[in-house]
Amino acid sequence: DLGKIFEAYWFLGASASIPSPWPSSFSTQFNKDTPLQLALNDTPSSIYLSSSPPSFCAAGRTPDLQSILSVMEDAESFIYIAVMNYLPTMEFSKPQRYWGDIDTQLRRLAYERRIKVRLLISCWSNSQPVMFPFLKSLASVHDPKSKLDVQVRLFVVPPNPGPEIKYARVNHNKYMVTDKVAYIGTSNWSGDYFVHTAGSALVVNQTGSQSEDPTVQSQLQAVFERDWESDYSTPLSQNADLTAYC
């Protein structure tokens, strides 16, 4: 199924236009509503691949944004997110445009269902300054009295004592893990990556597992919690001096 996504990119590399509709050879029967059922490491699993942008999705393919929103909607207790960039904007559009699809979903679930939300965002010299006011705004949705629990931390990889390597020494993660699902993607979380840029993601649900072996979800949760509690993670406060971090 991932081969079909690759073939679509290969096809577009030699084509001047995007097919509409795509030929049936690119179609898939595996999506958020009818995932592939298989044993992954001997564990019963429901799996599908999403893709972006929607214009690259042949019949049956779940667009990547729809996949993210669906995974969040299905969460019952927590949503943990680790990404390099998080911006509720069309990052590369002119004129500038706000894009609140993911941001609104997180705020809604934190308020309506009291879902615990954690965001671990990379912080380095190439981080866009405008990202931090939006993150501070999201982090402000935190009030134990009202059972609102959204927290944001910045993840900083210390500089290498040796020669500088461009675009390195930063956490490039793009994943989300909930109490049910592991989502591992290729896109930064701003509007352009889901509307204009090619990308894909793997969604794994193993909640039906009766095995004592760790699931993909539990392993990814452990990775997130390790980084969240590490010395490289710093809580983002409203009056934080970001120059001390990035």
Give me the secondary-structure topology.
Layout: H1 2-13, E1 36-40, E2 43-52, H2 64-74, E3 78-83, E4 86-87, H3 101-112, E5 116-122, H4 131-139, E6 142-143, E7 148-155, E8 174-178, E9 181-185, E10 189-190, H5 191-195, E11 199-205, H6 216-228, E12 233-235
Parallel strand pairs: 3-5, 4-10, 5-7
Antiparallel strand pairs: 1-2, 2-11, 3-8, 6-7, 7-12, 8-9, 9-11
Organism: Oryzias sinensis (Chinese medaka)
Membrane topology: Single-pass type II membrane protein
Domain PLD phosphodiesterase: 167-193
In short:
The protein is of the alpha+beta class and 246 residues long. It has six helices and twelve strands.
Radius of gyration: 19 Å
Number of domains: 1
CATH topology: Endonuclease, Chain A
What is the share of helical residues?
25-40%
The percent range for strand residues is: 25-35%
Per CATH, the architecture is: 2-Layer Sandwich
Largest sheet: 10 strands, mixed
Q: For the record, what CATH class applies?
A: Alpha Beta
- Distance from first to last alpha carbon: 39 Å
| Helical stretch tally | 6
Q: Segments where pLDDT lies below 50 for 5+ residues?
A: none
- Could you give the order of the helices and strands? HEEHEEHEHEEEEEHEHE
Number of DSSP strand runs = 12
EC number: 3.1.16.1
Domain PLD phosphodiesterase: 167-193
Main location: membrane
Organism: Oryzias sinensis (Chinese medaka)
